[in-house]
Amino acid sequence: MKRKVRIKDIADKAGVSTGTVDRVLHKRGNVSEAVRKRVLEVVEELGYERNLLASALAYNRIIPIVAVLPDPTKDPYWEQLNKGVEHGLKVVKHYGMSVSFYYFDYSEPKSFERVAEEALATQPAGMLFPPMFAQEANKVIRVCDEGGTPYVFINTNFATGTPLSYIGQDSMQSGVLGARLLDFGLSPGQTACILSLDYSTKAAQHLKDKEQGFRSYFEEIGNKEVQIIRHNFEAFDDDQQLADFLNDLLRQHPSLSGFFITNSRAHKAIDALSQIGATQVKLVGFDLIDKNINYLRANKIDFLINQNPMEQGFQGIVSLFKHLILKEKVKPVQYLPLDIVVKENTDYYLKREPAFQLVG
């Protein structure tokens, strides 16, 4: 059996003290470049494997992380993402990391700004949040960059700032995929509607990206002459208002034959369309929440694109762990798969265990 390499073994071979080896391994204190290089060469030569758990516990450190998320009680999508963060916490808390949750009102961009400021006032070692609202996100990003606080974007990527990483789907490509899937059910000359059942849609970058991707698909194929219309509807929780809105929309556009719902609320569109007797339209939506799954199985939703919210939350915490504790380089962009879910493979995705991995 191979003997475990000790710090003393490294120190003896490198001709330095155990304290110097410790400073090199933990990247602390003043060590000359020549000594640091020699110690690391011996580390590699002897095959030393650092015991991260023991190291973290030995220094009795608590590394506080803040997760700024939409209220998970208001939307099942964010509930799933929140569970992913909680699972990540269970994995990393033994290494000295803690996660504090701060929830904002998804319908109010200013609520995000206020809650994020509250979270940053605690001077966390790292931050996890979805930069959904451009103006408010820019302010939070500026504070993080100026204060040197590493942060991870989830769900929505953003063009400004210097995040540690973005974790989620390629929103533009998800729009392209949505268009391709909807295209299977459209005939030349018909109309497709990009419909956002969401709050503050004009400020939401990920929705803009999905629309751009959707339009680009039909522009590129160019031979079907599908008309594309775009609508936002914020009163989606009022069933009658939504039904009236869709009824008027179908009257105005008699050739409207397909909907691309840009978030997890496809089930609300189905409820409203059923109420007005419009059951023949094709529909592509997002996310494996219970109501969407039920309509997928009933052939009322044609396709769902799974955004893997639990994986987003988990990998967000893992990325901060790798950066803050393992001192590893984190990929700046971590795109998750664009899973296409239909009635026939729904059970596979529901039974599949999330691909939670701490390292690798």
Helix amount, in percent? 40-55%
Structural class: alpha/beta
Counted beta strands? 12
Task: Identify the CATH homologous superfamily of the largest domain.
Answer: Response regulator
Termini gap:
26 Å
For the largest beta-sheet, the strand count, sense and barrel status come to: 6 strands, parallel
CATH architecture of the largest domain: 3-Layer(aba) Sandwich
Write down the CATH topology of the largest domain: Rossmann fold
Plain-language structure description:
With 360 residues, the protein is an alpha/beta fold. Helix 1 crosses helix 2 and helix 10 crosses helix 11 (266-275). The protein has a six-stranded parallel beta sheet with strand order 2-1-3-4-5-11, sandwiched between helices. The protein starts with 6 loop residues before the first helix and ends in a 9-residue tail after the last helix. The protein folds into three domains: 7-50, lambda repressor-like DNA-binding domains (434 Repressor (Amino-terminal Domain), Orthogonal Bundle); 63-168 and 309-337, 3-Layer(aba) Sandwich (Rossmann fold), CATH 3.40.50.2300; 171-306, Response regulator (Rossmann fold, 3-Layer(aba) Sandwich), CATH 3.40.50. It contains 14 helices and twelve strands.
Quick recap of the structure?
Helix content is 46%, strand content 17%. The protein has 360 residues and is α/β, with parallel strands linked by helices.
Topology:
Blueprint: H1 7-14, H2 18-25, H3 33-46, H4 52-58, E1 63-70, H5 76-92, E2 97-104, H6 109-120, E3 126-129, H7 134-147, E4 151-154, E5 165-168, H8 171-183, E6 191-196, H9 205-221, E7 227-232, H10 239-252, E8 256-261, H11 266-275, E9 282-286, H12 290-297, E10 303-306, H13 309-326, E11 333-335, E12 339-341, H14 346-351
Parallel strand pairs: 1-2, 1-3, 3-4, 4-5, 5-11, 6-7, 6-8, 8-9, 9-10
Antiparallel strand pairs: 10-12
